[in-house]
Write a structure and sequence with these properties.
Elements (H helix, E strand, L loop, with lengths): L4 E3 L11 E6 L7 H5 L8 E6 L5 E6 L3 E5 L4 H19 L11 E5 L17 E5 L2 E6 L2 E7 L4 H15 L8 E5 L5 H17 L5 E12 L5 H11 L4 E6 L4 E7 L2 E6 L2 E12 L4 H13 L1 H18 L3 E5 L5 E4 L3 E12 L5 H8 L7 E2 L1 H12 L9 E5 L3 E6 L3 E5 L2 E10 L5 H16 L3 E3 L1
Parallel strand pairs: 10-24
Antiparallel strand pairs: 1-5, 2-9, 3-4, 3-12, 4-8, 5-7, 6-7, 6-20, 8-9, 10-11, 11-19, 11-23, 12-13, 13-22, 14-15, 14-21, 15-18, 16-18, 17-18, 20-21, 22-23
Helix pairs in contact: 2-8
């Protein structure tokens, strides 16, 4: 796979095993990028936060190594990057006295066989970077690590980041947006759902997850890091991410779903399928939760996803634990049926093998997997790119990947947000359209006000 991998001279043999570390005064990690200016050496910029597992927020700046599979490289090309990252981490552990700080961050597309989403041409089939600078915020402090050989450049980077962190900044304000839904969008959606239902009736599919783009326009250019600050301010819980590979566009989101987290041999996974509106009052939420748990259609959708996740990991794990019945996951706008899964990885199973067995799950793709993905590509009439793909990080013996839903692409003064719905036997096209709107709103309402 050397033809899809880019390396920088910093990783040539003989690199000194050293780094520069410093504490940074500041209370808002994601206010830093906007104050750094357009410094090419500090791109890419990747943010990641996980309130549930670690309570930490991360910001990666610049790169000293990059592993890239171009759009259309296919599953083999994209998944090979996960193994390549692990191989390099064995050699690069000495870059920092704390091994957990040496990690590749990035992600891969929903369907690496196809091209990038037209709104984010920078979204290759997969891309993982070893950052030049890694900032970690935990317990009210920010620690900065410049990987590689310390020297005047590393010290200048630290000082630049320190000034950016200490610069005055105002609390983020909601972005006022107006929706620019195309007139024919609903008709296309109804037709696509009809095609899927016919495939299900013919026995060619059990479930297909269709999605649509929701176009939002603002009166000024949208700063993705400002949006991430707003999301964290309004709802600091869950998995949050922002990936910016150039100054023109970014991909960001607030995902409720983890594909897999690895810590040594221990694995944590989420099965998330089945949705209803949360409700405006506590009484309405309780009633809606009861309705969701009792729903035959949503229960069937959830069982399809759970069964296929368990079947996918079965050859690669042992000591599997999953609840006998799904639980309710409550988010800002919606409720989901949720089954957390825990397991132990079998010795010798590589990260690429594990992720390849799981991605994409029927929660965002369908069943059977490849046939559902082919239907999705034909019916959605555009490549999803990294929407419903994976974002996260890879360490020496740990990794964490979120499913990139509740997400959007920021480009200029436009955001392309995404909403999806699982189509199974009994699905109603109009109800599923409303579900995509609710799911997108659960993300959009964290940062926007409607015009």
């Amino acid at each position: 796979m050397d033809d899809v991998v880019k390396s920088t001279p910093a990783l040539e043999p003989g690199l000194a095993a050293a780094c520069l570390r410093a504490s940074i005064d500041g209370d808002d990690l994601y206010a830093i990028p906007a104050r750094l200016g357009s410094v090419a050496s500090l791109l890419p910029q990747i943010g990641w936060s996980d309130s549930a597992r670690t309570g930490e927020r991360w910001l990666a700046l610049g790169e000293i190594d990059s592993l890239v599979a171009p759009a259309g490289a296919g599953f083999a090309g994209a998944l090979a990057l996960l193994e390549r990252a692990r191989e390099r981490l064995k050699v690069l552990a000495g870059l920092s006295p704390e091994p957990s700080l040496v990690r590749y961050v990035g992600g891969l597309a929903f369907d690496p066989r196809h091209g990038a989403h037209p709104g984010w041409p920078g979204g290759e089939a997969a891309r993982f970077i070893l950052p030049r600078v890694l900032l970690r915020q935990a317990n009210g402090t920010i620690e900065a690590t410049v990987l590689g050989t310390p020297g005047p450049e590393a010290r200048r980077l630290i000082e630049r980041i320190r000034r950016a962190a200490m610069a005055p900044h105002s609390p983020p304000s909601p972005i006022r947006v107006s929706e620019a839904t195309l007139p024919a969008a609903r008709g296309r959606w109804t037709g696509a759902v009809g095609e899927v239902l016919r495939a299900i009736d013919a026995g060619a599919a059990r479930k297909v997850v269709l999605s649509r783009d929701i176009l939002l326009d603002a009166r000024r250019a949208i700063d993705p890091w400002e949006l991430l600050r707003l999301v964290h301010q309004r709802d600091p819980h869950g998995l949050r991410f922002c990936l910016r590979f150039d100054h023109q566009s970014a991909f960001m989101g607030a995902s409720p779903e983890r594909l897999v987290a690895q810590d040594g041999s221990m694995l944590a996974l989420d099965c998330l399928a089945g949705t209803i509106a949360r409700g405006a009052t506590r009484e309405a939420e309780t009633g809606n939760a009861a309705s969701l748990l009792a729903s035959e259609k949503d229960g069937r959708e959830h069982r399809i996803v759970l069964e296929e996740i368990l079947a996918a990991i079965a050859p690669h794990v042992r000591e599997v634990q999953s609840p006998a019945a799904p639980r309710i996951l409550s988010l800002a706008e919606v409720l989901h049926l949720w089954s957390p899964i825990r397991a132990r990885l079998r010795p010798g199973v590589g990260l690429g093998t594990l992720v390849g067995a799981l991605h994409p799950t029927p929660a965002v793709g369908g069943s059977p997997r490849l046939h559902a993905m082919d239907l999705i590509h034909a019916l959605e009439q555009r490549s999803r790119g990294w929407y419903a793909g994976l974002v996260g990080w890879i360490g020496q013996d740990a990794a964490d990947f979120a499913v990139a839903i509740r997400s959007g692409i920021v480009r200029g003064n436009r955001m392309t947000a995404f909403g999806g719905a699982g189509i199974v036997r009994g699905s109603d096209p109009h109800a599923e359209w409303d579900e995509t709107a609710r799911k997108a709103a659960s993300f959009i309402n964290l940062f926007a006000e409607r015009a």
